[in-house]
Amino acid sequence: MKNLGERALRAGIIGGTGLAKMEALKDAAIQTVDTPFGPVSLRTTALGEIQVSFIARHGLEKGIPPHKVNYRAYISALKGLGVCSILATAATGTLNLEIRPGELALLTQFLDFTKSRPTTFFDEPVDQPVHLDMTEPYCPRLRHNLSQAAAELGLALHPAATYACTEGPRFETPAEIAAYRCLGADLVGMTNFPEVALAREAEICYAAVAVVTNYAAGISPKPLSSAEVHQVMDRLGPSLEKLFVQAIQKEKGDDCPCRHSLDAYPGERAAFGPCALPRLKRTED
What we know:
By secondary structure, the protein is α/β, with parallel strands linked by helices. The protein is built from six helices and nine strands. It has one domain (9-120, 127-269): Rossmann fold.
């Protein structure tokens, strides 16, 4: 593994089955990072002048179910490594007939229907409870980079989709899917929350690309299976890798509002520490 030094820009990728076989990771050694929430195994390599750390969301070997993924440990590990930007994948079923299986979509909003997961770093009593704005939960700057990269590669990428996150590991019922459609969901999956919210709490830019693997229950003409999910993820893996590599190489160390989400809570920021980039003064338009 080429090490670019302490001052290198650092990015993270959190991916599922489709990205576990990334060509860029073939020579990357596995390292373990200890966090307050448990150890995390990941691979780190260099893409141009950027150090990239990859986490297999469901584990490098065993298949961790979505409701048991240690989301806090993953974000904490990347933060500890100095990562300031994360790109993630999300396998999804589609509720929107204009977003079809085998296609990619940028997530722009989410609906949280999870039940038992720890969803925040800030769950201890404090003098000033932390309430972060989530008007735009996915980083606009990273979404722009992904859109540009997709255009350059000739990849079709739906520009906006609302994601409903369910607890899993079971698939949803047709009645649940009908309810999510009424609430404005385009896609449904089991893993993107609380990942996206934790990244915002850690002041890390975060964007996610949904891989549409099937029509959701009640829309699909056949029963759902995990096999078709894995087949589509594996098939689109090479395209996702190209997209992420292209988007990551657009990182220039620019400041971003995502990296200022704790400006009103300096004491809580101290628990994380700053990211590897200098904290630039944000210029107001």
